[in-house]
Specification:
By secondary structure, the protein is of the alpha+beta class. Helix content is about 45%, strand content about 15%. A hairpin with a 5-residue loop joins strand 11 and strand 12. Helix 6 (about 245-260) runs parallel beside helix 8 (about 305-320). The structure holds alpha-L-rhamnopyranose.
């Protein structure tokens, strides 16, 4: 009897414990009540892709040329008819040029020319965004990211005639075709190759002002191409690589989109998707994939990107007045500020060393860049921008500590990072001078306008100043020039940097571009760089937002 009573008590306790425990497990998801709704909205705003069938425009030969980008150029040789009308056995290694960057699906048709097909045919196709991808051997592969990003695909055709579509989505302008195996007892030809190109861009952007220089018009056109190619069912970072949504890339793409294609539903989708796939602790994950099920790259937490989500959301709400989206996602924006509160020291300086140990603090692909000033500046910027968003949404009372915190960080930055002697901002224990530090000290408002102008101008002659490593950082440098009123310098910087890519033959802008080192790669192998990269599209934003600077 006593035993029975004890047993019953134990069972009741166990059930109660399990109930409390599972409630706690669920309570750990800070967005539990919103998450499914956000993912549903992300799905609702998923765009339909437009499809256009494209044919190659010519055959080209790849030639070594010291003057060409990365040492390789494509020279027109024949019309595509030559490929179609001649035995493929005599043409192994031929390269077709589609004349423009395309993202989508590649198919080809094979037909017998002579005899009966008695064995399979094997062809290796290599797809390249730039000529070097078709010229530099991929193996032995020295890269630090997957070899499989490189777009070489071997196809074995067992039935002839036949039309085959390569299942993998590809991004390229050029395709090289090499014969790896064929029977000596029959002959065949490639009868047709084509590309089904996809994008979610449907609109044409407004025309530039009639007086716009041809260089600026070219930069705008190539920027629009870059953006269009990256706008698939999310804002991808690059259609060749990494083919996914990163917060930093989304920020710059959504700005460019606001002033061009105005596909605001895509922006909305991306905000909801990132929110829906954030961690249970409410912190955003830097990048997400759409298939086979939407999921995040678990564990990839990038501190600056969390802050930029807020900035991007604020810009979007301000430009579209879509307060509903702002309100839906306000809990996410509010939550990201916790990381600023966490690392802000009593002296008003962000503990960048600790943050760097616990997070990926990115800002640029640049070895040796000291990120203290960048992090301090972006933190101030994100606080102020999030407060502006709160004001738009009538939520100021929920972040009432923010203006004082922003002021504190700003005063501390001025006190600790400004060198009055040189007029430049320094970063870290070695007092490093960099473009990034000046840019973020200007954008955050730590520098007054005259100080900003002095700092940005002083960079040109500063010994050992760390230059931007990628167009991503260059964006913030140009934004700082504009912010400080250095309009001519801003125009000059866009013309020199992005115009430099145009002069080297870019038809889409690149992930990495160092004018002094064309072979630079964050992945130790430049053919795996992305040559149509979202964050490089931002001249579109600058040119169109500031016509008085760029369209005169
Ligand atoms: C690379 C991509 C992407 C960028 C991240 C940080 O994988 O270039 O665009 O956002 O790094």
């Amino acid at each position: 009897m006593v035993l029975n009573l004890l047993k019953t008590r134990f069972t009741v306790l166990l059930v109660a414990f399990i109930a409390v425990f599972s409630a706690n497990v669920k309570a750990q998801d800070v967005y539990q009540q919103y998450r499914q709704g956000w993912l549903k909205k992300a799905e609702d705003y998923k765009p339909r892709l437009s499809e256009t069938v494209k044919q190659p425009v010519s055959l080209v030969r790849l030639e070594k040329d010291k003057a060409a980008f990365q040492g390789w150029k494509a020279v027109n040789t024949d019309s595509v008819g030559k490929l179609y009308n001649t035995s493929f056995k005599t043409q192994s290694g031929v390269v077709a040029d589609f004349g423009e960057h395309l993202t989508g699906y590649f198919s080809f048709t094979i037909k017998a020319l002579k005899g009966t097909s008695d064995a399979p045919v094997r062809i290796r196709f290599t797809f390249g965004e730039v000529p070097s991808e078709l010229s530099v051997p991929f193996d032995p592969y020295p890269g630090t990211i997957s070899r499989a990003w490189l777009q070489d695909e071997t196809v074995t055709v067992t039935e002839i005639p036949g039309t085959i579509t390569i299942p993998r989505r590809l991004a390229c302008r050029y395709v090289k075709m090499e014969l790896l195996g064929a029977s000596p007892y029959f002959d065949f030809q490639i009868a047709n190759i084509e590309f089904k190109a996809t994008t979610s861009v449907l609109n044409k952007p407004p025309l530039l002002a009639p007086g716009t220089s041809s260089l600026i018009a070219d930069i705008d056109r190539v920027g629009l191409n870059t953006l269009k190619e990256c706008m698939q069912t999310v804002y991808e970072d690059g259609p060749k690589r990494d083919r996914r949504l990163w917060i930093g890339d989304l920020y710059l793409e959504s700005l460019a989109n606001l002033y061009s294609f105005q596909n605001n539903d895509l922006t909305k989708r991306c905000f909801y998707l990132l929110a829906g796939l954030s961690g249970d602790d409410g912190v955003l994950i830097s990048n997400v994939f759409e298939t086979p099920e939407p999921h995040a790259q678990v564990g990839n937490r990038l501190l600056d990107y969390c802050f930029l989500y807020n900035v991007a959301l604020k810009e979007y709400v301000a430009a579209t007045d879509d307060k509903q989206t702002g309100l839906d996602l306000w809990p996410v924006a509010k939550k990201q500020l916790d990381m600023i509160r966490k690392y802000a020291g009593a002296d008003g300086m962000m503990d960048y060393v600790k943050a760097g140990k616990e997070w990926w603090v990115f800002f640029d692909w640049k070895d040796g860049l000291d990120r203290q000033a960048c992090l301090q500046g972006l933190s101030i910027y994100a606080l102020n921008q999030t407060y502006a968003l709160a004001k738009q949404l009538g939520k100021e009372d929920e972040v009432s500590d923010v203006p004082a915190l922003a002021r504190k960080l700003k005063n501390a930055a001025y006190k600790n990072l400004y060198d009055k002697q040189t007029g430049l901002f320094v970063s870290g224990t070695n007092k490093q001078i960099s473009y990034g530090s000046q840019a973020w000290m200007v954008l955050s408002g730590v520098a007054s306008k005259p100080e900003a102008q002095i700092a940005l101008k002083a960079l040109a002659t500063a010994k050992d100043a760390v230059h931007p490593g990628a167009p991503y950082m260059f964006h913030y440098y140009v934004a700082a020039l504009i912010e400080s009123g250095l309009k001519n310098e801003a125009k000059e910087a866009v013309q020199t940097y992005w115009g430099g890519m145009i002069k080297k033959g870019a038809d889409t802008f690149w992930e990495v571009y160092d004018p002094n080192d064309e072979l630079k790669s964050p992945y130790n192998f430049y053919p795996v760089n992305s040559y149509c990269h979202a964050w490089s599209c931002t001249p579109v934003y600058f040119i169109r937002k500031y016509p008085e600077i760029f369209q005169r």
